[in-house]
# Entry
Amino acid sequence: MPDDVEGIFGDCAFAFVPSDSLAPNLIHSLGTILIENGAEIVEPRRDGSIPIDRVTHIISNTIDFPQYVETQAVMIPVITTQWITVSISRRKQAQVRPFSPDPAMIFSEVVVTCADLPQMDKESILGAVMALGGQESKDASKLCTHICALSMDHPKVVAALERNWKGKIVLPHWFDDCFKLGKRIDERPYLLPDPDILKRGADEDLDIPMNKNLVGASSANPEFLPLSSDTSSRPPVTVFQDKSILLCKDLKLTARLENALKDIIEYGGGRLVEDVDECDTLICRYRDGDEYVRASQACKDVGNLSWLYFLIVRNEWTSPLRRLLHYPIPRGGIPGFQDKRITVSNYGGEARIYLENLIKACGAEFTRTMKTDNTHLITARNSSEKCKAAPEWGITVVNHLWIEESYAKCEMQPVNVKKYNHFPSRTNLGEIIGQTSFNESRLRDLYYPGGERTMSPSAKRKRKILEAAENNAYSHGPAEGEETPASRKNRRDAQLVTPARSRPARADKENETPMIMSSGGRSAKSKAMDKLSSIAPDIALYEKEKKRTSKPGTPFGGKKAAELTEKEKGSAKKAVARKDGDDEERPAKKSRPSLPGIEMRIILTGFPRWVDNQTKEDQDRRKLRDLGIQIVQEGHPCDYLAAPHVVRTVKFLCALARGPTVISSSFVDQILETGKIPAVEKFILKDDDAEAKYNINLQQSVARAKAHRGKLLRNVGIYCTDKVRNGPDSYRTIAEANGATFKIYRARSGSTIKPTTAEQDNFLPPDPVYLLSGNSAEEKQLWPRFREMAEKGHMEPRIVSPDWLLDVAMAQQVRFDKKFLIDGE
# Structure
């Protein structure tokens, strides 16, 4: 298709997945670029999910979103933002495979050209790189990231350096070691002109690396909640919004901890339930029991307490299958490990804790020191005293990939697999620990097979999606322990292996290592159902029957029947109490019946019924609560936002950020007048005049809000003068409800903007930073210094009317129009 007709993306429909690495402001910028080049941007559904049937590509920098498995099932490519950069640069759509965020594609976004390598080695390296997500380049172009060479003298290397090329020049050893491990290790020891692997020996000291993969994932059963249970001191954990969660009894939670978790989940818009059939997510400790089997067979999210804490801390969804110790452990361990005694060496910090817990979860015994009765040594390098002594004592030496893959595949792996015995000379393998994930089909075969007869239609659909995704997933190649192309082609080791150094004479071996003290299948569903919409008719029917007054002559029915039933239950309880010897004095007054559970949480704004009538408001609130409806205050989680029409009040805009269903307040009026709950779908708010006035589509705003989960303005800096109209407090509330960083900017303000790097996409403008201001002389004096501060931080200063913030909050989109600028620039 010619570029000048529809653009390079003229046949594409894109959807974005917001995340920490893909904030809404960047989404808006990229979306504008795509539209300018002919693309269509597909908005999320009303529940915040992606309408996969309408998209051709999904832009995401992570696979950690609930619909990822479904995209694999229907073969919709998921690609990083870098794909857009490369496609724009080339003026044609780039291949999608090299830009997958799948961690199994270890060379994703690597573009390599080879210099002075033999032809067979060159073909071997390029073939394996391309199989694992990389690309080949004929020369060292701007898009090329690596030159594979044996020296700096090759003309291709010399020419690249003369052009001030910014990539990395690496020895072929790096690719070879990555292939053998099936993981991407750090290139630094292999960088020319002075590679560490050629100038230093394998026995020389090497720092133990830090590993972010294990943060919050080093234990399957953490002993404490990593956050304060005081929900008022932090933003809500919106990852639980609209989720129903079941905490299993095998967790053995204390009442205090369970209440703290309940507060956090409910404050984030979720619910705790007691029936496995009602839950979306099951939290349990072991891979057994009726609840675990039923939830797993229904393809629900099943994780352990560590995974739950991880979600609370990060407030970002991730699959419990992604990290090994986020999934329930097998009671009794993995077959074959029960008589094994395992120690570790050259791992530190979280990595050592993680391995200790993983060894115990497998069913083996972990020992802090190595003795002759140990069976295995897991080491990150093969150069410690333990490593030297182990073969003499008949102890098997392996790296951590052996224990990880044994646990992930639910059976002990043979120790003679090459990648379990490979130790790059200047690499501590602790840098790649924690990257192994579960395969859902393997778990199902062993722990919850069958169940087809009792599956609901939705569960059967999810099972088909999982199976299709498994069939369509990328072939992982060496990442799954296959022989590398280099091995199959019999590459000449003499050209790729570092010359052997003579080993120094070994002193008496020391086997007592210092003890390091330290404190301390994805679900395929797209859960798009509005739960309240489906149960509201049942609530209404129940209330209608309970409240109905019996007709004359009717011996048992309606309200009388309900009251009689409750009375009989109360009498029976009292009789049991007396029988058990309960001599407690009876209350003088009849106790009020317990209130029904809260089924609807509604925020009301602009509601004329209660204006200047507190007594009426209190009475009506009690009536609604008796029906299972709670009117909640601003800032609290809600299922519905009710208003007579679209209004730009603080309450409306802050509530909208949570993505509630927006309904007409006549819904509440009708309940109060009739005592019955009508179908909520009939009261979805429509306000064409206001939508035209504010240039919004209210339902799209709600859908975007559900997708952003209160993080629309994350990574967006918003400053405000203290003399702005109506004062800064209301704007602070709106900005922070949408995840912004909000600061007051004064004449003597010490505020500064931390400079950003210039390594951003070359076709994107600098990130903007906003100052909400009026036109007073005092405020105008702040503008020059604000501009200077922004420009020093490599950001674009925008001095705007506060209406910009209201516009963004109403549209739930980080959009900008020059009409909001008040400084004329």
Remarks:
- The CA atoms of residues 49 and 391 lie 55 Å apart.
- The first strand starts at residue 13 and ends at 16.
- The chain has 29 helices and 24 strands.
- The radius of gyration is 31 Å.
